[in-house]
Amino acid sequence: MNYKLILVCIVHGAFGIQLRAHTLESLLEGQTLFLLSPNGRYAAGCGDGTPSYFYDLQEHKFLYQLPPDGAFYTNQINDLGEVAGAYGLQAAIWHQGGEWELLPQPEGLTDKQLAWSQANAISADGRTIVVSFGETPDMHCIYQRKEDGTYSITPLDLPTIEPVYHKAPQFVSIKGISADGRRIAARYLDDDGFRDIPMLFECDEVGKWTYRFLAIDTLVIDGCTLPHKPKRDEVDNYSLALQEYWADVMAMETGIYYKLSNMGISANGKYINLSVALSIDDDDYYTITHPAVIDIDADSLIIFSHTGSCPSVTDDGVVTIATSTSIGIRTSYVSSIANPDEAVTFGDYVMQRTNGVINLADIMVYQVSQEGATDIGYGSAVLAASGSAALTMQLNDWEWKYETYLIQFDATTPIENSETEQFAVYPNPTSGIVYFDNQLSNVVVYDVAGRSVYAQSHVEQLIDLSLLNEGTYLLTAQLNGENIIAKIILTK
Q1: DSSP code of 430?
Q2: How far apart are CA 198 and CA 419, in angstroms?
Q3: What is the pLDDT of residues 456-476, one digit of tens each?
Q4: Any bridge partners for residue 74, and if so which?
Q5: Are residues 200 and 137 in the same domain?
Q6: 3-state DSSP call for residue 241?
């Protein structure tokens, strides 16, 4: 199968005259996709449950596939198609030339640190790499790539105790890096292996790295004292001791527990996406998972109403939500920090973003229905910072067969000569009232999550958006029979 649907719209006024195209292409039959580069060009995925390929979405070709006698791990892919991970048991970067570069190891490493290392994150330009040492990492280093291809290596200062429960770390794990390489999302797991706290490592203007804990006021549970978690060298039967520990934890009456997972960071370094697993009582222990986003600069946590995990967040605060239906088929939703109490299915999101041109129902093998919304069953959907998305579909509900599609939103190419009538939107930005020089029909305004927030069948000269929240919106309409699109920025 190979689908390619294109919508062409003429856009005028302050945004220039552009050709706007939406495309849907079937790329990877039998393969799933789980990583996209920030620019949406490169991807990494798997075919049988293990990372097995890197792919150029623009050139439609495989860059690398798992060799029969090789083993590698993939953590992040950047705008150059470079992949941060591990080859064998050593931190490595895969380059476009087709070779793995084993990263140099700093002096003074312990046997435990030498036994396992991996590159957890790489900046968009490949100049900043984060490397972790140890299977439960107790050392992280910043590798700065120099012009001659060598590296300067700087160990990150790590906390020896966290400020809430005053627990020493079991380990700190690196979860992602911003495109400019100056902000790193991390997760602090305490010595009991129970409490997670989000962390941020940040580089200042002189190159000094510091860390801070995030969203403590929201995630902290007062008065919760947990039993000591056993360690392997402390007990004769570690498996039995661990079972008894979790039984003791679950029997406690301490209110809401939480665990964090699926952490990442937006390309612009403004947001951290994560999933918060909550438990209200013993019966629901670790079963209620909600997507969440941390606004880093505001140090605020937004928890979304729809349940599921949160695999990605865009620079505009749009998140994908992965959830499961009653028959165990994963499906995806889209929401936004502007309205965290509402979510639309990924299929509806694509319909709205493309003004109805791309309808995933056209390629569905089967449908599933959940919470009043009908959508396709698929493994995952990932949004890239560039305005593209990858969708992995499960082809039926009984066999593990997949197909991956690439969706390009709003690809633009300038058109220098157009005889179409001028279209103007003003003022822009606006506090609410938007004026037009022309009469418009079928006017619809969408928020950044693709939801319709305003609609009028006929507009004379203005619309009033003052009841909407601040942010960026997309207006679609018809002018003299032609489709037009304009971006509107609303400020208060």
Answers
A1: B
A2: 54
A3: 888 888 899 988 888 878 788
A4: 85
A5: yes
A6: helix
139-151 in b/e form (b: 16+ CB < 10 A) is: bbbbbebeeeeeb
Pair (62, 117) in one structural domain: yes
Specify if 7 maps to a domain.
Answer: no
DSSP 438: S
Q: How many domains does the chain have?
A: 2
CATH no. for residue 463?
A: 2.60.40
52 vs 294: CA distance, rounded Å: 32
Judgement on whether residues 429 and 349 belong to the same structural domain of the protein: no
Q: Which of 363 and 231 is assigned the larger pLDDT?
A: 231
Distances (CA, A) of 300 to 293, 337, 491: 8, 11, 21
Rounded Cα distance, 137 and 299, in Å = 26
pLDDT digits (tens, 9 = 90+) for 170-198: 788 999 999 999 999 999 887 665 567 89
- 181 Cβ neighbours under 8 A, 6+ residues apart: 123, 124, 125, 127, 128, 203
C-alpha 184/C-alpha 120 separation (Å) is 10
Dihedral pair phi/psi, residue 386, rounded to 5°: -75, -10
Q: How many CA atoms lie within 13 A of 274 on its CB side?
A: 31
Q: Omega before 429 cis (within 30°)?
A: yes
Q: How far apart are CA 388 and CA 180, in angstroms?
A: 20
Is the residue at 108 inside a domain? Answer: yes
pLDDT value of position 312 = 84
- Work out the burial of residue 283: count CB atoms within 10 Å of its CB; fewer than 13 is exposed, 13-18 middle, 19 or more buried: exposed
Half-sphere exposure of 44 (CA within 13 A, CB side): 23
Domain encompassing residue 199: 25-224+256-400
The closest alpha carbon to 84, from 55, 119, 49, 130, belongs to: 119
Q: Which residue has the higher pLDDT, 273 or 428?
A: 273
> Residues 291-311: pLDDT tens digits?
889 999 998 888 888 878 888
Residue 111 belongs to a domain with what CATH number?
2.130.10.10
Q: Are strands 425-426 and 402-414 parallel, antiparallel or unpaired?
A: unpaired
Residues 291 and 395 in one domain: yes
Q: Is the dihedral of CA 487, 3, 61, 348 positive or negative?
A: positive
Closest CA to 380 of 370, 372, 371, 390: 390
